Amino acid sequence: QVQLEESGGGLVQAGGSLRLSCATSGRTFSNYYHMGWFRQAPGKEREFVAAISWNGGYTVYADSVKGRFTISRDNTKNTMYLQMNSLKPEDTAVYYCAADLNLGRVLATTSHEYEYWGQGTQVTVSS
């Protein structure tokens, strides 16, 4: 079992920045899982944002956030981050972090490949 808890969401003006955090707990061999960020806007399906390998050595981003968002993790703190810069109104969504315990595959970009999820944190970008 892995428990995930997001924080850091809020209201920001377009062009501004936010940093989301995802604190993890519960797994005996901690941090041996890939992690990802997804988001879901009202009336839309949940979409992939970014993913990072268990040791932080590999990352992948959705084209819509590439160059603006940076995913990272600090395994000494059992925490993953999403630094979001140059935010746009279309980034408005509930952001979820997720954990993928299958280390035998490349970084997953679809939600069904992640076994554990947080409750989400709201990010609202005003124009």
What report would you give on this structure?
- This protein is mainly beta and 127 residues long.
- 0% of the residues lie in helices and 48% in strands.
- The protein has strands at residues 3-7, 10-13, 18-25, 34-40, 47-52, 59-61, 69-74, 79-84, 93-100, 116-117, 121-126.
- Strands 2, 4, 5, 6, 9, 10 and 11 form a seven-stranded mixed sheet that branches. It has a four-stranded antiparallel sheet with strand order 1-3-8-7, with no helix packed on it.
- A hairpin with a 4-residue loop joins strand 7 (69-74) and strand 8 (79-84).
Write the layout of secondary structure elements.
Layout lengths: L2 E5 L2 E4 L4 E8 L8 E7 L6 E6 L6 E3 L7 E6 L4 E6 L8 E8 L15 E2 L3 E6 L1
Parallel strand pairs: 2-11
Antiparallel strand pairs: 1-3, 3-8, 4-5, 4-9, 5-6, 7-8, 9-10, 9-11
Short structural summary:
With 127 residues, this protein is mainly β. The protein has strands at 3-7, 10-13, 18-25, 34-40, 47-52, 59-61, 69-74, 79-84, 93-100, 116-117, 121-126.
